[in-house]
Write a structure and sequence with these properties.
The protein is α/β, with parallel strands linked by helices. The protein is built from ten helices and 17 strands. The chain has helices at 11-22, 39-42, 57-81, 100-109, 119-125, 147-160, 204-209, 270-283, 329-344, 358-363; strands at residues 4-7, 27-30, 92-94, 115-118, 135-139, 164-166, 171-177, 180-186, 189-192, 196-198, 218-227, 237-240, 243-247, 253-256, 292-302, 309-312, 319-323. The strands form three sheets. An eight-stranded mixed β-sheet has the order 4-5-3-12-13-14-11-15.
């Protein structure tokens, strides 16, 4: 029997498995499909909350910790597997023309470099920008990562670390005796365990509810497109309202993303495709010269405030959860994995763990995540 059984093979589950295995634990991971194929793959890979000054402090503290870890995680994965996750510090250019004072106050408080730009300085920062845009805020230290490559590298590293992965194995419930989970009810049968960590993304809330803990978690669809351009067509991550551009090293430009409360429906829609394409051209008109290569969607694990639930079950002593990361799961993954490891090994966390427990999660409903996405 392994030390830890992880339920969910997205970025959170894979990063937790890696962290625990590096710490010397034996780990197994259960995934209902293939690892890294849901929201983790579908996202964009911006390593910052969008409009970070709109978010509650607990999320910003977790984000700051993750940002400090990500480059070293990417380099370690590249060295161990030969797969480059393409971490790059290309900066984030926000061109809303609003909330300047809030942004500057946030930048000073969190010691985050932030530079207001106008005129020539704005277009020197991003030559592809629409000439009709007159001002922006540039965060030069913000990085991005190519999430499909990151997931491929993680999968390869878990194999090297001898983490046992169970793909195509859906967990339907728990065997519970007293205050402990003793087994998992899976599509492959009953499986005895020592300790469980639940990080099943948009589906995690349903499984958690089988233990008697019913939290306000729900799937939120996000649609994206990708435009195939020559390298260097766009050089910065650009954010305008709820839409953004992410330039990859090979020239491809991701355009995201919608926020749709439609249950577990993962279908793409023509209306979203048109909306995303129009938003892309409003930010960088040069993109009109290039084709849309792909259009896809994913289901984010939505939570009321955007702050995740990371912590122990209030009754079951050997069950921990990492759920509800909403739009920031990939960005928060290293710090989430570190916090879970600290909790299950009873070591001192680098962030205040009570900010992410059940009571804090429920109390955070007063800070609506959709307010951060207006």
């Amino acid at each position: 029997m392994t030390d830890f059984s992880i339920i969910g093979g997205g970025i959170i589950g894979m990063m937790i498995a890696r962290e625990l295995a590096l710490d010397g634990a034996t780990v197994e991971l259960f995934e209902s499909g293939e690892t890294g194929q849901q929201a983790s793959w579908a996202g964009g890979g911006i390593l910052s909350p969008l409009h970070p000054w709109r978010y509650p402090d607990p999320l910003l503290r977790l984000a700051t910790r993750s940002q400090s870890l990500f480059q070293s995680v990417a380099e370690a994965l590249h060295q161990a597997t030969g797969i480059d996750p393409q971490w790059q510090q290309c900066g984030l250019l926000i061109v809303d023309g609003t909330e300047r004072e809030q942004a500057l106050t946030w930048g000073e408080r969190w010691q985050m470099p932030l530079k207001p730009l106008t005129g020539e300085g704005l277009f020197a920062c991003e030559p592809a920008l629409n000439p009709g845009i007159t001002e922006g805020l540039f965060l030069p230290t913000i990085a991005q990562i190519r999430n499909p490559r990151l997931l491929t590298a993680l999968k390869a590293h878990l194999k090297l670390l001898k983490v046992r992965v169970h793909p195509q194995t859906r967990i339907n419930g728990f065997e519970i005796h007293g205050d402990r989970v003793t087994g998992l009810q899976s599509s492959a049968g009953q499986h005895s365990i020592n300790a469980a960590i639940l990080c099943a993304g948009a589906w995690g809330g349903q499984l958690l509810a089988t233990t008697g803990l019913d939290l306000p978690l729900q799937p939120v669809r996000g649609q994206m497109i990708i435009i195939k351009t020559p390298p260097g067509t766009v050089s910065r991550v650009i954010l305008r309202g709820s839409r953004y551009l992410i330039p990859r090293r090979d020239g491809r430009v991701l355009v995201g993303s919608t926020i749709e409360y439609c249950g577990f429906d993962q279908q793409t829609t023509p209306a979203a495709r048109e909306d995303l394409y129009a938003a892309a051209l409003e930010m960088a008109p040069v993109l009109a010269d290039f084709p849309i290569e792909h259009h896809w969607s994913g289901l984010r694990p939505g939570s009321p405030s955007g702050v995740p639930y990371i912590g122990p079950h209030p009754v079951l002593t050997n069950l921990h959860s990492a759920l509800g990361h909403f739009r920031n799961g990939l960005m928060l993954a290293p710090a989430t994995a570190e916090l879970i490891k600290n909790l299950v090994t009873h070591s001192s966390p680098t962030v205040n763990a009570s900010d992410y427990d059940q009571q804090s999660f429920v109390a955070g409903t007063e800070h609506r995540a959709d307010a951060a996405d207006r």
